[in-house]
Predict the structure.
Amino acid sequence: MPVPAFRTSPARKRKRRSHLAIQPEKTVLCPNCGAARRPHAACASCGYVRPGLQIKGSEDV
Ligand SMILES: [Zn+2]
């Protein structure tokens, strides 16, 4: 079974892991109610998806 030819140095390991930090969740403001929501997802508070489509709490459904 192949093994690594050289030991990974601490600096090389740290440089590799510099990209692994957890990023804060991206949000956009709902154009319908103004609440923060995840992009490309229905609004959690009003259900707005796009003009003409609202999947909960709408009076025209
Ligand atoms: Zn909303």
Q: What stands out?
A: The pocket of zinc ion is lined by residues 30, 32-33, 35, 43, 45-46, 48 (CB under 6 Å). The chain has one helix and four strands.
